[in-house]
Design a protein that fits this description.
The radius of gyration is 20 Å and the shape is globular. It folds into two domains: 158 residues, Rossmann fold (3-Layer(aba) Sandwich); 92 residues, UDP-galactose 4-epimerase, domain 1 (Alpha-Beta Complex). It starts with a strand and ends with a helix. The chain is an alpha/beta fold. The chain is built from eight helices and twelve strands. Helix 3 runs parallel beside helix 4 and helix 5 runs parallel beside helix 7. The protein is 38% helix and 15% strand. Strand 1, helix 1 and strand 2 form a beta-alpha-beta unit. It has a six-stranded parallel sheet with strand order 2-1-3-4-5-10, sandwiched between helices. A two-stranded parallel ribbon has the order 6-9. Strands 7-12 form a two-stranded parallel sheet.
């Protein structure tokens, strides 16, 4: 790997992926896309890129956790269609030899009981509250497949479940970060930790370093859909107990708001037969590192 472009490099996955690339390929030439340079809300060209790219890592997306998808459907449709169309146009017009590495979303899978294997990601309807965001990710995949069919271009479409680990934005509302924030506030600020839903809905976590290593270990794949998955999900209550243990906070002080929106009952992805499970990091160790990071950033060295 000599030269790559990374979009969305300032996000959680982007920051860790860039570090992983630099560790493995210390002489790599990195180019970035952001709001001031190669802004993907507008068409971009080769200006400032003086190399043929080996890879384009496309992580840029307009989305947030919580109810953002429900309340910003038009913004998500417009912005994500522009972002994806502009990077695809750049790829086809200026850097067709590069392999496109993109991120899908587990939300794009149909909201029913069928197995969440890669062959099923375009079947059925996604979750109603996440429908627009999910469909923009499906459109990205169909664009990749069209370019591969007509122009013999190469891609990998990774589909991650929930990523976690240190060095995240402490305002991030993805469920594990939200759980950590609420329980830490209960411990250090005396607030009541009210968690959404019954706590019996299930989720799957992939430690960020495992995801990065899995992506970089499988760049030899061509024109494949690949779940980034561990193959094992747990209830929210299970994760909550582990966070409470890290913070030495009694679980009986917590409250579950069973009237609140709790999302899909299950989001477990089947690991790809091409890669196997993306889990190397012990869950308790991973959660402890994540909790320690949050507490240090938010409260200083109180642990």
């Amino acid at each position: 790997m000599k030269s790559v472009l990374v979009t969305g490099h300032s996000g959680f996955l982007g920051r860790h992926l860039v570090k992983g690339i630099e560790r493995r390929y210390p002489n790599v030439k990195l180019y970035f896309s952001n709001s001031s340079e190669r802004n993907l809300l507008r068409p971009i060209d080769n200006e400032g890129i003086d190399h043929e790219l080996d890879y384009i890592f496309h992580l840029a997306v307009d989305t947030k956790a919580g109810d953002y998808c429900l309340n910003h459907q038009a913004d998500q449709w417009e912005n994500n269609q522009l972002i994806n169309t502009n990077i695809m146009h750049f790829w086809r017009r200026y850097q067709p030899q590069a392999k496109m590495i993109t991120m899908g979303t587990s939300c794009a899978y149909p909201d029913d009981e069928q197995d969440k294997t890669e062959a099923n990601i375009l079947k059925g309807d996604p979750n109603e509250r996440l429908y627009i965001y999910a469909m923009t990710k499906r459109m990205l995949l169909t664009g990749l497949e069209a370019f591969a069919q007509q122009d013999n271009m190469k891609y990998i479409y990774f589909i991650p479940n929930t990523l976690y680990g240190p060095d995240f934005e402490i305002t991030d509302k993805h469920f594990i970060f939200e759980v950590i924030a609420k329980i830490a506030a209960a411990k250090y600020e005396g607030k009541t930790a009210v968690l959404w839903g019954s706590g019996y809905q299930k989720r799957e976590l992939i430690y960020i370093d495992d995801a990065v290593n899995g992506i970089l270990n499988n760049l030899h794949l061509e024109n494949e859909r690949v779940n980034i998955a561990t193959g094992k999900e747990r209830t929210i209550r299970d994760y909550v107990e582990r966070v409470c243990e890290c913070l030495s906070y009694p679980t009986h002080f917590l409250r579950y708001d069973v009237e609140a929106y709790e999302g899909q009952k299950s989001k477990e992805l089947r690991p790809s037969p091409l890669t196997g499970p993306f889990n190397q990091t012990d869950l308790d160790q991973g959660i402890k590192k994540t909790v320690d990071y949050y507490v240090k950033q938010k409260y200083g060295n109180k642990m």
